[in-house]
Design goal:
This protein is an alpha+beta fold and 456 residues long. It contains 11 helices and 10 strands. It starts with a helix and ends with a helix.
Length: 456
């Protein structure tokens, strides 16, 4: 009888061991009968919930395969000073839990259940470029199907570091990275892979954010690498997010007003220099341009030297140069009407070369404008030299003047003075013409540069 009791006890122990082994094997099945009538019984999943502190594998030497993907739904801010990109994305992770499995036929056809994430093991995915605390809301759910495949989606607002190149602002394109990796599990424990094709991921994200914010998503690419830290290797998937700024706001508020001010400053060359109105007009424009730069300073990047800042500096320098040239011309014309100095020989040669490059100009200038081969008017705004000095006496006037002490030497001196005035006036014409052409060249090159950058 004792042997029979021992035999029965041994059979019971074998049966219990068989159940335990069955529960730990690949055929671990949750009893889901009655779920379709009385709801989900938490006791049926209690064994799974108790295992949440451990990675859900039967053989611990086998790594867990985690498929990840994300959808970039908004680019909230790109800070050039802090080199940060603030974005909003939906992170999706899928892995297999072999301890969650049931027969849908026994559960009224239930194939998917939602379970609170606090009861499940979750992969510890993090973004390497993350520069802030995780703001993922609490109380999220994960979906588990009857085969044990678990899918976890969570919304994330992430501040990631991004090396920004703002030289072509506001036509700049940036390439930021989002590197996903496990914090604690090496490649022996967790292996990462893509849930969907990166092209599908890119198209979905581009469709979501195509009409939002300042930035346009150009595309997303990815590559997988092994990251080595000390002697450990970690799986890592790097996503490259290419974005482009919408330049319309900056063109309307920055480039167009600046171009108008420069064009008006160029047209001011048509004002007569000897009238004294051109210099105050240019000073007013220069002050207005400085006020414009101060008001629009908030729209420019706080760090670095973008190309648009170089453009503004060139505009300001050109306006200052134009003002200095106007002051010099005004002084020169005033000096020419009182006591014109003789023109240096090198300047006279330069004037001959610039005004008559294709003509055989005589070395000794003749009377009037004929010696330089210039027309009577070069640029609107300057009066004729004859209006700046007293006219030379004619033959009849010479006889009258002779009676009052007008000598041949005085007539020659007056003719020489008139000739000097003509030379300095022609020199002022040349300076105005050259600076005016410089303005036109600068404005044309600026327009072509903007069109080229906008189209590319």
């Amino acid at each position: 009888m004792e042997r029979g009791w021992l035999h029965g006890k041994g059979f019971l122990l074998c049966f219990i061991l068989h159940l335990l082994l069955q529960g730990r094997g690949d055929t671990f099945t949750i009893n889901c009968s009655g779920f379709d009538q009385h709801g989900v019984d938490p006791a049926a999943f209690q064994a799974v919930f108790d295992r949440k502190a451990f990675r859900p594998v039967i053989n611990y030497s086998v790594p867990t395969h985690v498929n990840i993907s994300f959808t970039l739904s908004a680019i909230l801010k790109v800070d050039a000073h802090l080199q940060l990109m603030t974005s909003f994305l939906w992170l999706s992770m899928i892995w297999h839990n072999p301890f969650i499995r049931w027969n849908p036929d026994e559960c009224g056809g239930i194939k998917k259940l939602s379970i609170a994430t606090e009861n499940l093991w979750l992969p510890d995915m993090f973004i390497q470029e993350f520069m802030n605390v995780d703001r993922t809301p609490a109380g999220l759910m994960a979906y588990v199907n009857s085969e044990g495949h678990t899918k976890y989606n969570k919304p994330m607002r992430v501040d990631t570091i991004c090396k920004l190149d703002i030289f072509y602002f506001p036509f700049d394109e940036q390439n930021c990275t989002l590197s996903f990796s496990s914090f604690a599990y090496t490649v022996e424990n967790v292996v990462l892979s893509m849930e969907t094709e990166v092209q599908e991921l890119s198209n979905t994200s581009r469709n979501l954010i195509q009409s939002k914010g300042e930035w346009v998503l150009l595309g997303i690419t990815q590559r997988a690498i092994k990251m080595t830290v000390s002697s450990n290797q970690y799986d890592q998937i790097i996503f490259y997010v290419a974005i482009r700024r919408r330049p319309t706001l900056y063109i309307i508020n920055l480039l167009v007003p600046s171009g108008f001010l420069v064009a008006i400053d160029a047209l001011s060359f048509y004002l007569p220099a000897e009238s004294g109105n051109r210099a105050p007009f240019k000073i007013t424009l220069l002050l207005g341009y400085n006020v414009f730069l101060l008001m629009m300073n908030d729209l420019l990047p706080a760090s670095g030297t973008p190309l648009i800042s170089v453009y503004f500096a060139l505009c300001l320098s050109l306006m200052v140069l134009s003002l200095l040239e106007t002051v010099f011309i005004t002084y020169l014309l005033h000096l020419a009407t009182t006591q014109p100095p003789p023109m240096p020989s090198w300047l006279h040669s330069l004037l001959l070369h610039c005004t008559c490059p294709r003509k055989c100009c005589p070395t000794a200038p003749h009377k009037g404008n004929e010696g330089l081969g210039l027309p009577t008017t070069q640029l609107p705004g300057l009066k004729e030299p004859v209006e700046l000095v007293e006219k030379s006496p004619g033959p009849g006037e010479a006889e009258v003047a002779g009676g009052s002490g007008w000598t041949r030497a005085q007539r020659e001196q007056e003719a020489q003075k008139q000739h000097r005035v003509e030379l300095w006036v022609q020199f002022s014409h040349m300076m105005d013409t050259l600076l005016f052409r410089l303005y036109l060249l600068f404005m044309a090159s600026s327009i072509l540069t903007v069109i080229g950058l906008w189209n590319t």
